[in-house]
Design brief:
The chain is mainly alpha-helical. 49% of the residues lie in helices and 7% in strands. The protein has 16 helices and seven strands. A three-stranded antiparallel β-sheet has the order 3-4-5. It has a two-stranded antiparallel sheet with strand order 1-2. The longest helix is centred in the middle third of the chain and has 29 residues, at 157-185.
Length: 474
C-alpha cells in the first residue's frame, strides 16, 4: 500500500510540475529583428482566407511604418491582388490602379510583367457582349497588346495571346453586326465603312470571309467590278477552306479575271482551326445565354492560332474605301485622275499586310502597311469643315479663292455662286454668273412693293442639292 501511494504522489507531482518547452531563441530573435516580415505574412494569410479588408489594413500599416522595408513592393502588389480577388466594378477599378502604380514605381522588378497582365485581365473580366458597350473590350485589347509588346518571352505570353484573340473576336463581331445591319438596309457606304475596317484590322475573325463577300457584292452592285474582283480574290487566297470559295471563283471567271491560288499558310491555318477542339455548350445552359452578360459564344468561335494584331488602332484613319477631294468620301470611284479603289489585303496569322490599289480596272500591289493605313488615298478630315470653294478642286483647299467682282445691284444678282457636279467631282465657280432663267435678283422688289426673296433662296438651294446628288453614285 505504501508503495502505491508513493507512485501516485510522484505521478501527481509530475503532472503539477510540467516541464516548460525550451524557447527557440532564433525565432524570438527573428520576431524582434524582422517585424515587417511577420506583418507581411499575417496580412497575406488574411487575404488568402478572404479577410480582404483586414489584410489590406495590415499591408498599408507595413507601407506606412516601414518605408524602407524589402517587402514594400510586395505589399503594394498584394493590395492590388486583394482588390482583384474581391471583384466587382469598384474592386476591379481599384485593382487596375494598384497594378498600374506598381508598374510605374517598380518597372524593373520581375513582378512588373505580372502587374501589366493583371491590368488587362481586370478589363477582360468586365467585357460585355458585342452588342453592348465595348469600352472595356477596347481597353483590354490595348493592355494585352502592351503586355505582348513589352514582354514577348514571358511564360504568361501564350495565355495573354489567346485572350487577345478572344477580345478581338468580340470587337470584330460588334463591327460585323453593324455592317450587316446597314448591308441589309441598303446603306452601302455605311456598311462598307464598317466591313472594310473589320477585314483590315482583324483577319483572324471567324466571319472575315462573309465580310469580304458582302464588300464584293456592294462594289459589284455599284458597277465597280474591278474592286469586287479584289475582294473575291481575297476570299480564295486567304480563306481557301471557306464555303464561299466556289462562288467567288465563278464570279471571277465571269469577270474574265485570273483566279488566284490559295496561300499555303492560309490552308495550314484554316486546317488547324477546323481540327482544334471547341467547347460545346450543353442543352441545359443554352437558355441562360439570354440573361448572360459576359460573352461566351465569341470566346468559343475565336481563333486558337495565328498572330493577333498588335498594332494600336489609329484615331485618324478612315474606314471608307475611296476618298475624293473636298473631305467627301464615296465608295464608287470617279473617272478623274488621282482616284482609285484602295483595298487592304491582310493574310490571317501574319503581322504584315499588302495594300493593292486598283485604278482603271487594273490592280497593282504596293508595299505593306502594318498599321492598317490607307495607302494611295487622302485622309479624311471629318472633324474640320471644308474650306469654301474646295468641294471638288484639290487646289482650292490650299489656296484661297479669288474674290468675286463687285456686284452691281442693278445688273448682277447677289447669289453668283453656282455648283455643278460631273461624275464624282463637285466644282464651285465663284465668278461665273448663273443662267438668266435660274437667278433671282435679291435686291429687286416685286411689283407690289413687298420685299420677298424666298423664291430666289429656294432656287439656289435646290441647285446646290442637285449638284451634290451628282457626287454620290447612288
Amino acid at each position: 500500500m505504501g508503495g502505491l501511494m508513493f507512485l501516485s504522489a510522484s505521478t501527481d507531482a509530475q503532472i503539477l510540475h510540467k516541464k516548460k518547452k525550451p524557447v527557440n531563441k532564433s525565432t524570438a530573435a527573428d520576431n524582434t529583428a524582422e517585424p515587417d516580415k511577420i506583418l507581411y505574412q499575417r496580412a497575406l494569410e488574411d487575404i488568402r482566407k478572404g479577410r480582404q479588408e483586414v489584410g489590406r489594413l495590415s499591408m498599408q500599416t507595413l507601407i506606412n511604418t516601414y518605408p524602407d522595408s524589402e517587402y514594400l513592393a510586395k505589399a503594394k502588389l498584394a493590395i492590388a491582388d486583394s482588390y482583384y480577388k474581391e471583384g466587382g466594378s469598384a474592386g476591379l477599378a481599384q485593382a487596375i490602379q494598384g497594378y498600374k502604380d506598381f508598374g510605374i514605381f517598380f518597372p524593373f522588378l520581375p513582378e512588373a510583367s505580372y502587374a501589366q497582365l493583371q491590368v488587362a485581365n481586370a478589363h477582360y473580366q468586365q467585357i460585355a457582349k458585342p452588342d453592348r458597350d465595348r469600352t472595356e473590350a477596347k481597353l483590354a485589347e490595348e493592355e494585352f497588346q502592351t503586355f505582348l509588346q513589352k514582354y514577348p518571352k514571358d511564360p504568361l505570353a501564350i495565355k495573354a495571346e489567346q485572350r487577345l484573340r478572344n477580345v478581338q473576336e468580340i470587337i470584330a463581331e460588334g463591327d460585323y453586326r453593324i455592317g450587316y445591319f446597314y448591308y441589309v438596309k441598303g446603306d452601302k457606304r455605311a456598311a462598307a465603312a464598317r466591313l472594310i475596317a473589320l477585314t483590315r484590322r482583324y483577319p483572324l475573325y471567324s466571319k472575315s470571309d462573309k465580310a469580304l463577300w458582302m464588300l464584293a457584292d456592294i462594289f459589284e452592285k455599284s458597277e465597280h467590278k474591278e474592286v469586287a474582283s479584289v475582294y473575291y480574290g481575297q476570299i480564295i487566297k486567304n480563306y481557301p477552306l471557306s464555303p464561299l470559295v466556289p462562288d467567288a471563283k465563278s464570279r471571277l471567271v465571269s469577270y474574265k479575271v485570273p483566279v488566284p491560288q490559295a496561300d499555303p499558310k492560309a490552308v495550314a491555318w484554316m486546317t488547324a482551326e477546323q481540327n482544334m477542339p471547341r467547347q460545346k455548350e450543353s442543352f441545359v445552359k443554352k437558355p441562360l445565354a439570354l440573361v448572360r452578360t459576359a460573352p461566351h459564344a465569341e470566346y468559343v468561335a475565336a481563333a486558337r492560332s495565328g498572330a493577333p494584331n498588335l498594332a494600336p488602332e489609329a484615331d485618324n484613319t478612315s474606314a471608307t474605301d475611296i476618298l475624293t477631294p473636298g473631305n467627301r468620301s464615296q465608295l464608287g470611284g470617279s473617272t478623274g485622275a488621282g482616284t482609285g479603289a484602295v483595298v487592304e489585303v491582310v493574310t490571317p496569322g501574319t503581322a504584315g499586310s499588302i495594300s493593292g490599289t486598283t485604278s482603271g480596272g487594273e490592280g497593282n500591289a504596293n508595299g505593306g502597311n502594318a498599321n492598317g493605313g490607307t495607302d494611295g488615298a487622302q485622309p479624311a478630315n471629318e472633324g474640320s469643315p471644308p474650306s469654301p470653294g474646295a468641294a471638288g478642286d484639290p487646289k482650292a483647299a490650299s489656296t484661297p479663292p479669288a474674290p468675286p467682282a463687285a456686284p452691281d445691284a442693278a445688273t448682277n444678282p447677289v447669289n453668283t455662286t453656282t455648283t455643278t457636279g460631273t461624275g464624282g467631282d463637285a466644282k464651285t465657280d465663284a465668278t461665273t454668273p448663273p443662267a438668266a432663267d435660274a437667278t433671282t435678283d435679291a435686291t429687286a422688289k416685286p411689283a407690289d412693293g413687298s420685299q420677298d426673296n424666298s423664291k430666289g433662296q429656294k432656287e439656289s438651294s435646290s441647285k446646290k442639292k442637285k449638284g451634290l446628288r451628282k457626287v454620290v453614285p447612288w
